[in-house]
Amino acid sequence: MKKFKPVPFRHRPKGMTILYEDMDVIVIDKSSGLLTVRTNYEKEKTAHQILIDYIRRGDTKSRKQLFVVHRLDRDTSGVLVFAKSFEAMENLKQQWGVSVKKKYVAVVHGIMKEKSGRITSYLAENDDYEVFSVNDPQKGKLAITAYEVIKETKRCSLIEIDLLTGKKNQIRVHFLEKGHPIVNDEKYGNMFKRNGRLALHSQFLTFNHPYSGRTMTFEAKVPDCFDIYLNA
């Protein structure tokens, strides 16, 4: 499988680092603060649009398309994959929840009593786009988050997360409801604001290439500020 040659600096997209690119997929390290895709209530520049401009290289007549496979919240950074064809997108979406593995890291408030485990609930969303757990399976979607504490300080914990399902705001809601909201999460139960961004990062993503079938794993370096939050 042939990788693309380095792209001239003037064409490189801003707000992200391209980790891998070929004829079928683009894998990036998205920065915090950048939307994945446009929504009904947000009209700002998105990772999706920036990458469309990038693959078209400024050619307004280009018909090249880019397809959304999954999303990261605006304030979550890390590994994100897009497909360059409808067929590649369909292949990757069929893998989701079956063979795709997603690992996150986060800094949460407090010391967790249970150092590892699973959080399971049914998630619903209200008219204000806020996600929360419900008891009735008919009113929500199943969400499962596995976690392990890998470091603790007096005020915070660094946790590694296996996202076993991929529902909107799942990690943020699950740790809020467990009593340990993610540091700098203003939407879901922030206890106190520190200077900086949401302490949630998509560190690893593993999937089978939609054309070759080869298993591929990508890593995005954990932001340095996580250590600062942990030790503040």
Number of domains: 1
Topology, number of strands: 11
Number of helices: 4
Biggest beta-sheet profile: 11 strands, mixed
Descriptive key words:
232 residues, alpha+beta, Pseudouridine synthase, eleven-stranded mixed β-sheet, 15% helix
Characterise the protein shown here:
- This protein is an alpha+beta fold and 232 residues long.
- It has a single domain (9-231), classed as Pseudouridine synthase.
- It is 15% helix and 34% strand.
- The chain is built from 4 helices and 11 strands; from the N terminus they run E-E-H-E-E-H-E-E-E-E-E-H-E-E-H.
- Strands 1, 2, 3, 4, 5, 6, 7, 8, 9, 10 and 11 form an 11-stranded mixed beta sheet that branches.
- It starts with 15 loop residues before the first strand and ends with a helix.
- The model has no long low-confidence stretch (mean pLDDT 89).
Gist of the model:
The chain has four helices and eleven strands; from the N terminus they run ββαββαβββββαββα. The chain has 232 residues and is α+β, with helices and mostly antiparallel strands.
Layout of SSEs?
Blueprint: E1 16-21, E2 25-30, H1 47-56, E3 67-68, E4 77-83, H2 86-95, E5 101-109, E6 116-125, E7 131-134, E8 141-152, E9 156-163, H3 170-177, E10 200-208, E11 215-219, H4 225-231
Parallel strand pairs: 4-10
Antiparallel strand pairs: 1-2, 2-4, 3-4, 5-9, 5-10, 6-7, 6-8, 8-9, 10-11
